[in-house]
Amino acid sequence: MSSRVLIAEDERRITSFVEKGLRANGLVPVCVSDGASALAVAMSGEVDLMVLDLGLPDMDGLTVLRRLREAGLTLPVVVLTARDGVRDTVAALESGADDYMSKPFRFEELLARIRLRLRADRGPEPTVLRAGDLELDLRTRRAHVDGRTIDLTAREFVLMETFLRHPGHVLAREQLLSAVWGYDYDPGSNIVDVYVGYLRRKVGAQRISTVRGMGYRLEPG
Ligand code: CA
Hints:
Layout: E1 4-8, H1 12-24, E2 28-32, H2 35-43, E3 49-53, H3 61-70, E4 77-81, H4 86-94, E5 99-102, H5 107-119, E6 128-131, E7 134-137, E8 142-145, E9 148-150, H6 154-164, E10 170-172, H7 173-180, H8 191-203, E11 208-211, E12 215-218
Parallel strand pairs: 1-2, 1-3, 3-4, 4-5
Antiparallel strand pairs: 6-7, 7-8, 8-9, 10-12, 11-12
Helix pairs in contact: 1-7, 2-3, 6-8
Bound molecules: calcium ion.
Calcium ion binds next to loops.
């Protein structure tokens, strides 16, 4: 079963960036943009984790967090804080936040924190992802093709991981861009195409198909 992640954030650009990234990684996003709704959904028991912005209308994030903890709920909470909000960060951790990210952040860092907090409740994640004879070991950060080890840069690895989590699915350029590079990247950039080219050279061109006008697909076998 996919985990449901509540995103409580009033900045539309960030919400949509996190939403797309979570979906691209097999999680189910639930979005709200004010504090009162955040508290209501968090209390409903229908989500597995909350990403909580501290600056929210109606009720600020710290109040949401305190009320949630006062009600005895242990839902994991990852707080989003402003760049210079050291005091906010401390207050959030003291109020029962499990982790925090300061803005601006890269999606993969937020995802790592979310996975870490979700893993506490669920069984361990698979450590090796496979599609046919293509293998990615998430612990050793090594890739194998047909039994042969290949070297991937950090960015290539994350891109490959994103493909391997969705074998056979078409992934749009912007989906890959936000999953691997983050929301501060220019959507008009051709960096995704460039990196898909690098990966093709390393793992074999036939493994990643171009789906015209849509994006790319990892061939499952
Ligand atoms: Ca805000």
